Amino acid sequence: MIPYENLKRLNESFEDEFKARFNAVIQKGHYILGPQLELFEQEFATYHTAKYCVGVSNGLDAIILALRALDLPPGSEVIVPSNTYIATVLAVVACGLVPVLVEPDIHTYNIDPAKIAGAITPHTKAMIVVHLYGKMCDMDPIMAIKQKHDLYLIEDCAQAHGAKYRNKLAGTFGEFGAFSFYPTKNLGALGDGGAVLCNDDGYKDTLLQLRNYGSSRKYYNDIVGYNNRLDEMQAAFLSVKLPHLNRMNAHRNKLARLYQDHLSSEYILPVCDNDYADVFHIYNIRHKQRDDLQQYLLNKGIGTVIHYPVPPHRQKALKDLYDGKEFPIADEIHNTTLSVPCSFCHTEDEIMEVIGALNSY
Ligand SMILES: *Cc1c(COP(=O)(O)O)cnc(C)c1O
What we know:
38% of the residues lie in helices and 16% in strands.
């Protein structure tokens, strides 16, 4: 049996260090907004050469807080890719803003810069780009659009810790980089977690307030905030794993290269380009008989996942927003994509076994 993911195995090599940090937190007795969080925030900012990192409760909240910090007029439009995990869209809705979907490029699966201009109206104030599956968006044209139309930019980096475009890290292009540390992400906690990167002092102060009831001085609340803090224990665990992020990403890359080099032309494979350093949060292939293929692999003991079976515009929760609108490229991707094992927990032998099974389908 080759599972799609095995978190116990993924985290096994960090267990001793986790336990040491766990004991340190227990000894100190400080669980919320303490030294472990400050340390991790500093380390994560330094990794990105960003000025500030604000640890938050999860990836969805990271996007919500970034949007709230922009203080956009209610009803403002925010450009969002149609091919994304629903969290990106939900964050916009949660802030009383309007998510305007833009179709992806069928080859990269990321938002198509050429289609953004057509979605911009006088109400458009911001863009959220998603570096999906661990590949960054085509940032040069996106930055040109940002400049030309004077739009704010938030990067949803939940799948792209350590990914680069022209040697610049995901999360360092826009006003904000929003990260999730959900356990399966490339940098995963042992529970929920998230962070926002920014370079502006004012934004940083607002984020710090927003995550803690709108307060910067206990029991004095200046703005309407939330409880969106990253706790000491998760921050401590993340500090253990951050120094290994590049090595973990390199492992995913090695596995991805096996697929790239050995899979038959039966499958549509991810495009790789020298301008991009991909981190393969997900290694996806596309195939017309996707569902049958998934069942075939399951029968051979190989676990796979569909990211995602239903695109945001077809979700019941968003029915009112997108009723009657069509996003055929997002549909095409959702109908044909299959994510195959490609985690830090997998060995090269296991991936060769998956490749063997795929090539004899
Ligand atoms: C995982 C994910 C999120 C949400 O992160 P959580 O920590 O689960 O809230 C947002 N956007 C994308 C693209 C994701 O993959």
